[in-house]
Protein: ATP-binding cassette domain-containing protein
Amino acid sequence: MIEARELTKRYGDRTVVDRLSFSVRPGEVTGFLGPNGAGKSTTMRMIIGLDAPTGGSVTVAGRSYARHAAPLHEVGSLLEAKSVHPGRTAVAHLLALAHTHGIPRRRVDEVIDLAGLGSVAGKRVGAFSLGMGQRLGIAAALLGDPAIVMLDEPVNGLDPEGVLWVRNLLRGLADEGRAVMLSSHLMSETALIADHLVIIGRGRLLADTSVDEFTRQASGGGVRVVTPDAMRLRALLAAPEVTISSSSAEELLVSGRDAREIGIVAAQHGVPLYELTPQAVSLEAAFMELTRDAVEYQSAPADADRKAA
Ligand SMILES: Nc1ncnc2c1ncn2[C@@H]1O[C@H](COP(=O)(O)OP(=O)(O)OP(=O)(O)O)[C@@H](O)[C@H]1O
Structure:
């Protein structure tokens, strides 16, 4: 379990993490989301003691990271700018890490297998592709068989097979009862991996919710109905909680009734339907809507679109 309470980080007069409170629970994958510059890496650095909070606190399994006798067994982490000596082979890198933490050679072989690095374990890390580097970073994070796994943008640079591998790996780790946290700025990708979402913008908490709930809210875009009997269907569907708009004689946009309910009413009254389409807002669109005031560098056309909308 990771618990942040009112966690705050200021650089000079800039507050980059602002009274952030959230939990990363065992048995779940928590997606830590925010646009570029939202404060995700800074938060993760504070979790593992690489940065000191200006205010508030964050604990890992009940105490601050620095107070664990064997922190590598407690939290395995992959932070973006992890430096690995380019002249070292992957296996030498992992062995050196294992050695300094009293981890047996057997475990090095296990994580090499787990990360699919068997065929390149003897290669120098300097010659690794970005994806291979990510796999090595993940292997290193798992070396201590940690109860908590924290990965900063783990799918960055991975090809589709690599993305699927990360997804399955993290799911498996959570199913074993570990607390898994991954950061990303990609909503739709995260929704496929995570159970729980912590979304931040400009250092502040914007949402702390389940993926299911976020998806449910994002899909509340109404139902488009096309029928030659639009006037009659509109009257049949009328209720205080239902709103209906129309942009042409045969088309209705209905909110407050789902497609199934509309279909049943139409069938009961013999109203023919040409089209019945739930208007799902994409998860990415819902995420952009939530974070749009927190985006650090907004491109001019996107801004113009927003004003026009
Ligand atoms: N050492 C530092 N000194 C001053 N400002 C910093 C420092 N580290 C980070 N920042 C600023 O803090 C803000 C948050 O940065 P951070 O890297 O935590 O964001 P992020 O959400 O991880 O972004 P990204 O998705 O781009 O990696 C940024 O505006 C960044 O410029």
In short: The first helix runs from residue 40 to 47. The CA atoms of residues 13 and 54 lie 12 Å apart. The two ends are 42 Å apart (CA to CA). The chain is about 35% helix and 25% strand.
